[in-house]
Design brief:
single chain; 4-stranded antiparallel β-sheet; alpha+beta; two-stranded antiparallel ribbon
């Protein structure tokens, strides 16, 4: 088994043995967080490639699950391989950190596997408190370090870490939080906008049906030749209303595309639109030339 001289190995010939354990400098939360961020940047491209491959392969309903599982295995394999072979990921290497056993010896493969599987899963299940523990525990150990009996130390205990690394490491969580909040707000605004647009579409559809009734009344109770006014398609995401008229001109259905669900259409019959709620039908139903809105293909209207 390799001894503790591995911890403070010198590049110069005739280097003296490792210093006493008291001189070991353990890596705390912020420097490890910065190393993690570097690893995220390293893994970004391969993860993007995996997502692209699974998107092209089109696994259907299981696509997201398969893509997430493949991404997880990639990250797990990276951490296990780098830690077992080099005692450090690329992020830790960049910042001069290494993983050792709690006896300051090279960790065994079993320790690495335990640290990168059960250990980190438990650290995540504690709402990430297991990771934060590296900032205030004895020997700066995170929960997964305690489980695997490992520590993270500076390769050179006398080397000072640049202040900017800690500044960046502290700012990144704030940026991430603001990014998440911004995403939530954007999704909410998009949903509200879609609902407002669909409400406008329903209103437009009702207006079209009223004008169709007037047209039929002026043309011997026939819808033949009826064309909605150009202003009826003012909501861009819906487009111009689609009008299906029966051969005898006595029955007509008007369809307008939903903004929230682009594969769905709102359907209205002039004779019933004022007393029943606007129905929702599929695109295939519209293309079938249907002139009524009470088909079994109809689904409940959007709220």
């Amino acid at each position: 088994m390799e001894n503790k001289t591995e911890l403070q190995n010198s590049n110069q010939e005739g280097a003296s043995p490792a210093a006493p354990q008291a001189q070991v400098k353990y890596a705390g939360f912020w420097i490890r967080w910065a190393a993690y961020f570097i690893d995220c940047l390293v893994l970004f491209i391969p993860q993007a490639i995996i997502n692209g491959v699974f998107s092209i392969a089109n696994f259907g309903a299981m696509q997201k699950v398969a893509s997430s599982l493949a991404g997880f295995l990639l990250v797990w394999a990276y951490y296990v391989y780098m830690t077992n072979n080099y005692q450090a990921t690329l992020g830790k290497k960049a910042l001069g950190l290494k993983v050792f056993s709690d006896k300051l010896e090279r960790p065994t493969l079993n320790q690495v596997l335990l640290r990168e599987t059960v250990g980190k899963i438990v650290s995540m299940l504690t709402l990430l408190i297991g990771y934060i523990m590296a900032g205030f525990t004895d020997r700066k150990r995170a929960l997964h370090d305690m489980i695997a009996s490992t520590v993270v130390v500076y390769d050179d205990p006398n080397k000072k870490t640049p202040v900017w690394i800690f500044v960046v490491a502290a700012i990144l969580p704030i940026i991430a939080i603001f990014g998440i909040l911004a995403s939530i707000v954007l999704v909410s605004l998009s949903s509200a906008r879609g609902k407002a647009q669909d409400a406008g579409i329903k209103s437009t559809l009702a207006s079209v049906n009223v004008s169709a009734l007037i047209y039929a009344d002026d043309n011997n109770f026939s819808y033949t030749g009826y064309v909605p006014q150009a202003s009826a398609g003012s909501i861009a995401c819906s487009g111009q209303p689609i009008v299906n008229i029966s051969t005898d001109g006595k029955q007509m259905a008007v369809f307008m595309r939903s903004c929230q669900k682009s594969d769905k259409y709102f359907c209205g019959n002039p004779e019933t639109s004022l007393i029943t709620e606007t129905a929702e039908v599929s695109e295939s139903y519209v293309k079938s030339g249907a002139t009524i809105c009470n088909s079994s293909d109809i689904t409940p209207a959007l709220p």
